[in-house]
Amino acid sequence: MSSLRTLELNIVSDLVDFIRGTGYVLDFSDASFMEFFATELDVDIEDHRYSDVGTSKGKRLRRFLQLVDDTTALKTLRALWEHRVDFLMRTGREDPVPNAEVRYLTLVARLGGGPAAATPQQSPKPAFDHARFDVLKAELLALSSMDPHARGYAFEKFLRSLFAAYRLQPRTPFENRGEQIDGSFVLGGDTYLLEAKWHQQPTGQADLLIFEGKLGSKAPWARGLFVSYNGFTDGGLEAFGRGKRTICMNGNDIYDALDRRIPFDEVIDRKARRAVETGWPFIPVRELF
Q: Which residues does UniProt assign to the signal peptide (predicted)?
């Protein structure tokens, strides 16, 4: 059984039950609740063990967290938190729970979440200034009227500004004995190398393979983000194949994220996760959100 106490289980209830006392869990229907547990945890939440004190989604979740070990409880809370953040972003709702992130991090730390879980004394991530979305979108649109040669450098500079706005610790272009790297950034403890291109034609297989080759000569945990403003050829992506360490992004992805006010770090996270799930390097933002 988990070490979660009644008080801590009540905190979980507060975080997932936005309509107090109803037994609902976020926006889950009965079907999607069952699918969530099957997909994220390989668990049949319909099992009678989890409904012996009540059949509502809230009561089954509470009972499940009581019966499983701390490792499974921790994995469950992290998956629920990810869904919660996505739900609030999609609906544009203000978080109805005061100090929600701090309370969540406290639970994670108690279950042995480690340094990544932070401590309850840490301040939540500062809210992004939404006016900055409009400034960045205007800067992106202004690049279209520039001379092609100057535009390539300006595009790299724009991307560094975008990464900096989300505290992704961008690094300027650098060289490693015969190879040029357009930059790097850090997200969630992972280091990404950057390739940025603004060509008249979509990017094909050759450029993708060259960049993947650069990644292959780095540490095994290195990841790559290839940003091609005019996108990628279907044949190039197909020939490039699946299971690579590169995720891809085009100009429409950047514009859609800024226009819809989707945090850019969330865009990269979602793309990386879908790449892990499917092996496919490019899925547009409008399909992910």
A: none
